[in-house]
Amino acid sequence: MVRRYTDSRFGTRSQGETLTEEESRLLTDYMYHVSAAKASGELCLKYIFKFGAFPRAPLFHSASEWKVPTTFIYGFEDWMNYEGAQEARKDMKVPCEIIRVPQGGHFVFIDNPSGFHSAVLYACRKFLRPDPDNESLPEGLTSA
After folding, report:
1. Which of 52, 62, 132, 141 is deepest in the core (most CB within 10 A)?
2. What is the domain range of residue 35?
């Protein structure tokens, strides 16, 4: 059952690169063990989300209190709307960037791993360099 889920979600119907057979097997094993375990980090999801995957306390409401620079990363085909992050950014007192990665859905790190890694490395360099304004966005990524 888990294998059918990972094949359908991350196989031929994936937004970006299709997983190799080995990657698919590893992901299936991971999903199985996360689901079969008596307790895991995945259990927190029932406390974070209401029925239908709606957040109980949306981050949007607390973003103005955040004290660290923040980068939101979305896939171009993500079902989550990046415009919510744009609204949250308006009230934030810390630097905030929104990056959209092509050929990626909600699991952009699986759909387009190289694009996701580029976005993460860009975000880290931008906030760790002495002159972050001279850091340009990698090719293919879009700032929102």
Report:
1. 141
2. 1-54
